[in-house]
Hints:
This protein is α+β, with helices and mostly antiparallel strands. The chain contains twelve helices and 18 strands. The strands form five sheets. Strands 1-11-12-13-16-10-9-4 form an eight-stranded mixed β-sheet. Strands 5-7-6 form a three-stranded antiparallel β-sheet.
Amino acid sequence: MHDLRALRETPELYEKAWDARGLSGAELTARILDLDARVRAAQTAGQAAQADRNDASKKIGQAKAQKNEAEAQRLMAHVEELKRILEEQGEVERTLADELKGIVEALPNIPADDVPPGKDEHDNVEVRRWGEPFAIGAPKDHQTLGEALGLMDFEAATRMSGSRFVVLKGQLARLERALGQFMLDLQTAEHGYVEVVPPLLVRDEALYGTGQLPKFAEDQFHTTDGRWLIPTAEVSLTNLVREQITPEEELPLRLTALTPCFRSEAGASGRDTRGMIRQHQFNKVELVSITTPERSDEEHERMVACAETVLKRLDLPFRTMLLCAGDMGFGARKTYDLEVWIPSEGRYREISSCSNCGDFQARRMNARTRKAGEKGGRFVHTLNGSGLAVGRTLVAVMENYQDEGGRIAIPEALHKYLPGLTHIG
């Protein structure tokens, strides 16, 4: 959500920002300011009519006390007319306010000053690269490897659930579980995140707060009782501070959860239809930070480093990308993507996205902070990132650790989670 007062004071900032997002900034800003002015004019007219009505009501009693029935009748008729005006102005105000809200809540966050310009992924900027791609003669993709081992079954998943599902068995199922446990232990024991087991089903307000509703309803799974399956634990974790005032002394809050995630992939028709890269259901370790405006940039860099550590410990080659304005998610003001090397494709693929949302989500959730002894408060800043997507990490491990015979070596960091197992197959 956006600050209308700031938009009134610096409309050029919003014009430029929405232009960078591929929208018509001048047109949008002009429309919002016009609606905002009309809403405030209706409010002023209504307030004036109410004040006039209150004054006339007092004078009715005075007229009756003076036995001036004609004046009393005139004032009563005037009060009725003012009542009609109040109802009309109230309806005008509600209609205009709803239209204004509908426009503003569908507009993306304002990019940070250091976000590069650009339209799509081709304009993203590589920040750093770690590790060298493994030398694999003729790498097989993870689906070929998993099916050859008899431990990955897409056909059975399709029979029961349709496309974009998979069944993992035996040692691959153990490896997937070990990866999630390793990530959780790393983020809690070494990086100070607090583990949370959150709800997987949430109400409209929760998805609205983090920005998935109303604009991205088709990307979510909706239940028959009006709830939604979470697309990421970001929704549940961030909403823990919804409608709360968190003491500044308790910030930053660093939260993590390993949960199933559910996405309809409505806009992904024809993309990544083979394998586990793009699934309707997958496990992910999510990182969420709640902090003050002064510390959010620092916290963002820290979160990215925490996610990178997972890939370093697994010895998986990756690169860190700073996303351009046109490629960022709806609620983000600045985003880094981690992209891991996928040998069968000969390229890097996204495995984590870490975003600083500023106060964008906090305004939608009314999440505030204040120092002890102070009155009022201010909006917190919220950040989220994958630490990591477990399914895509499994893909990366399988493909980068394969040998010519189709076996998969277990990364050393996972040995304690898989005692006695050094290879799969």
